[in-house]
Every structure is written in C-alpha cells, then in structure tokens.
C-alpha cells in the first residue's frame, strides 16, 4: 500500500487514523498515495492559526513578509526536478508542470518584489490622501488598511496543485494572515510535497501555513467574521459553500472562482493572409492542449466571423492533428492525461451534452492513440473540436473541463459581443484583431463580463503571455458565472485580505496612528539641520523652515537662457500680460522648485546621499519678478531598506509667498544613510 498523505496541523504532521482512500496516477492508474483526514482536529488547527500563526506574521513588516516569500521561492526553485516528477503523475507534461511549479514560484517572487517596492516598511497601508473634514484643518479623515486577526482558508482545484496554493498564499501572507491549505484530493501528493519542504525549511513563521489533506467537512464551522475562504473548483461546490451558515450568517468572507466559458474572438478584419489568423488558431490549440485543457482560463468558445468559420475549423484541426497524446515522460508527447478517469468521464458527458447543438469536427471523445502508456488505464483523451449550429445554447452553458473547444460563428461585431456575454461572466477573454476600432468596440463590450482581456495582434504577439496565463500582476477572477471573485492583480489582492477603515482624528493623532506626518501635525525645528541627521536620528515631523529669497527678473531671464525654456510667459512681457492666468512675466515652476532646493539644502557632505525624485508636484500660485518665497520641509515618512545601508525619506515641501499663499507643494524623495558611519553612498 502506498503512503498516506499527512496533514500539517497545529505544529506537527498528522496521520489519519484509517487507511484512507487511494489516489491514482493519472497516466498508469497505479496508486500514488492515500488520503484521509479522519481524526484531524480542525478546531486545533484554526486555534493554532489564530493564536500562534497570525500574531507571528503580523509582527513582521510587509518588507519582512516579502523577504520570507522570496526565500520560499528560492527554496522551491532549488528542488524543481523532484516536483516535476510528482507532477507527471497528475498527467502533466513537463511544460504543464512548469506552468504549475514555475508559475507558482514566479508568483512568490513577484509578490516578494512588489511588497518591497509598493508596500511600506510597516504593518498598515494608507489608502489615499487625508480628507479635511472641517474648516480649519484640525479634523481630518484618513482611510487605512489593517490586518485582520483571522485565517485565510484556501480550497483548491485539482488542476494546479502548486500554483493554485502559492497564488493564494502569497497575498494572504503579505496581508498578515495565516493560511490553511486544503488541496483537491487528486494531485494532493504534490501539494503535500511542497508544503513539507516549506515547513522543514522553517522559513515561514510557525502556524502561518497549515495543510489539510482529505475532507474539509466541518472546517467552515470553525470560521468567523475575520476569516476568509478562497475557493477554486466546480460551480456546484461553490454554490454549496455560498449557502454555508458560516457564510450566510457567520460573516465569513467567501471568494469563488468557478466554471468559466472563456471565449476568444477573431476580429472581422482578419483575412486568411493576415498573421492574426495564425495567432488565433495557435491560441485556441494551446489552450485546448496545455494541461489537457484542464485550465480555468482555457478557451472553450472560439467565436469567429461566419465567412471565416470553415477556414478556422480546418486550421485548428490541422494543428490538433499534430498533437501527440501520451505518457508525459515519452519523447514527442505534447499532451498528457486528464487528472483522473472520473474526470475523463465528466468531460465525455459534457461533450455529449454539447453535441445536442454542435457537431464534432475533430477528435473522438472515446478513442485516442496514446504513446508510451496504456490508453485504458490512463485518463487519456483526444482533443475534441466542435462546431456550433446556429442559435446553439449548450456551448454557452456547459463547461467540458478538458481538451475541448467549440467554434461559434457570428455575423456582426454586436453579435460577437452578445455571444460572448452568453457565457454569463468569464475569467479571461481574448480578441485577435489588427483594427483599433474593432479593439475598442469589442473590449468595451466584453470588459463588463471579464476579469482579464487579451487583445492580440502581430505587434504584441512576440511578448504576449497568451490567453490563458494568469499573471501575478494582473487581476485573475471574473464576474457572474466565473464566481465573482478577484485574485492576484498585484497589491490589490493583498488589500482584499485587509480591512479598510476610515479614521477620523486630529493631524497629531493621525500622525501617531499612521506613522506618517500629516499636514497640520506638530513640526519640530531644532538646532541641527535635518540633512545632518542619519536615518536613525531623523524623526517624523523634523522640519526645516528656510530663509526667504526674492525672485528677480534677472533670475527668470538667466533660467530661461540656461535651460532653453523660453516659453513666452517667462520671456515676452507683452504676450505674458495677455495671458489670462498670469497677466505678466512669471517664474518657471522648475525655477521655483530649484530655488526652494537652494533654500532648504545643507550643502556639505553628510548622511543625505541622493535626491531620487519628487512626487505630487503642484504649482499653485504664479511667482512674479519681485515676489519673495520661502520653503518648509518636513520629514513625512522614513522607510529603511532592508538590504542597504540607507533608507528612503519622504519630505513634505511647501513653498509659500510673502502673503503666506502656497506657491508649490510636493514631496521630495531622498536616500539617507542609516548611520553617520555609512554615509558614503
Ligand atoms: P470540486 O468543486 O469538486 O472540488 C474543488 C475543491 O473543493 C477540492 O479541493 C475539493 O476537495 C473541495 N470540495 C469538494 N466538496 C467540498 C465541500 N462540500 N466542501 C468544501 N470543499 C469541498 O471540483 P473538482 O476539482 O472535482 O472539479 C470538478 C469540476 O469543477 C471540473 O470538472 C470543472 O468543470 C470545474 N473546475 C473548474 C475550475 C475553475 O477554476 N474554473 C478548476 C477546477 C475545476 P476534494 O478534491 O477532496 O473533493
């Protein structure tokens, strides 16, 4: 008997009390492992996540959490061959395994990098600017995101045992949540192997990752209003979860990613001679055959101009005829097996339903030539292409979760858009066209029904990641039938896991709460110029109030000459007088900003290493020759960089004129040495 998969629960590996049920190799039909969760203490798991895992993650800043994800990505990257071997037993070819394993590792790297670049070295995230709620500015509002003291539960589908887990784990971990992973039973041996490596490494804080192999019955009963469940799988299970008391009455947040009848539309502009036709055909064939079509984003409906339908069917069929099916390890095999014999039965059933309004134009659902394996014992299947009859409904309703797609003809673009919408909401759609008008009309028509859209033509094809690849930086999820959930999409997915709260308070209170200086809060001017202070010495609110300087006509003339910016408002008195906003010569905005730098700078070598830009520059009041200006510079935010001897300091800059009116406002961004010893940059 093969090994019983274990769960990682409450700090140790748990072995079920019974023998479990067998999980079979998709290619050979041999038993790979057994699975059972009998006797598993689910309450102990959720308690462990809440009491041990959550606090340990939330103690880390976003940058530290990102560093953990990066280390995990490196760890798994060093061990890919063993994971590929386990993946092959799910029916996956090497290319399929790379989509799953490398795709998952890449997602971790992407989130690690985004955390360090786009999230603060803190445990909260500010959302937008402060809102002034009263007349004088002593009462402000600020939206902020905090971590929930809850648990992220993920219930995954069988098709991506690695990526499916890691793409949910990365944003949840960054958001400060411990995760309990429940993989689909089929293929769970691969997920278990990955979790085992992560746990053995000790890289993730204890309790931040637990694994539930087997039935999750009763798990949702342990969850409450700070917890969330992210589910990927069938619409039927999704519907069951939606009706669960924990969701309906208990406040558990549920994200569902279910069936999706994704479409690809061929534009009416594309002729047989255009490269776009080939791109379209390749896209459909790739999506039918990668992972044997068991991809939630695969193209199920190929929507083409009626006049091109014969040509498209012939071209797709010709390509499919070259796809060798068989043991993923055998030479030349392009498509492996479905995940299980049961899954193949489901796909055959779906095809027979589709056949009530579509005819098979390529492939036989019941027969396939197989290389290197036993066609009966493995879950092999031929790619099957169907062609819909006019007015067909089934292709818009039935998801055959395998190497199956249906060609559907349209007469007008409006009809193409309407056909796409019959899918009632999809994860991903694509349009292949070289006509910008078609691109706009179809994109706007399809967007409300989709989470992601690819517009493909000869120009972006060389770098296109394809119709079916979810990317960590782009939203994955879709409306309606696709479940209504949203995953990935960069930091958006992190924020989905956090609570946004509007906090109303005084500027000083907001500064204390957020750790960022807020306009109107106390400013501290002391003897020492802040440019002489290292990162360790600088404090939020440290301020420079500069001397003032009068801007002369000569300054403006010389700046125009030096820079070549001789725009009439700075050089031609008559023309400038006619300008309704200025009524005369005004200083260049960049001259004002440059003079301000001259006013606040402390010139000698010191801990300030570089100025790396300004944010949010606004020129509010014109500066005329003879006007006097000064600047107030205040430390707004301090962000140490983990891997460097310096950090970033964001300064609030306000340039004012003699009347006290703000002339320019912006943030100055500098790099400052952490200590006075390492000020050499
Ligand atoms: P399921 O919905 O049966 O399973 C998905 C996950 O939910 C698995 O981890 C499963 O565990 C778990 N699960 C099953 N029943 C429950 C329950 N009552 N409560 C909590 N969790 C539960 O989908 P399958 O993986 O079996 O796939 C069936 C069909 O779903 C496919 O043929 C396809 O049509 C569709 N599908 C769609 C995907 C998409 O992303 N659009 C992805 C995968 C599948 P266990 O495996 O242990 O039963």
From TrEMBL:
Residues 15-443 form the Aldehyde dehydrogenase domain. Residues 540-644 form the MaoC-like domain. It comes from the Bacteria. Keywords: Oxidoreductase. GO terms for molecular function: oxidoreductase activity, acting on the aldehyde or oxo group of donors, NAD or NADP as acceptor. SUPFAM superfamilies: ALDH-like, Thioesterase/thiol ester dehydrase-isomerase. Pfam families: Aldedh (PF00171), MaoC_dehydratas (PF01575). Belongs to the aldehyde dehydrogenase family. Belongs to the enoyl-CoA hydratase/isomerase family. PANTHER family: ALDEHYDE DEHYDROGENASE B-RELATED (PTHR43111). NCBIfam families: PaaN-DH (TIGR02278), PRK11903.1 (NF008868). This is Phenylacetic acid degradation bifunctional protein PaaZ. The lineage of its organism: Bacteria, Bacillati, Actinomycetota, Actinomycetes, Propionibacteriales. The gene is paaZ.
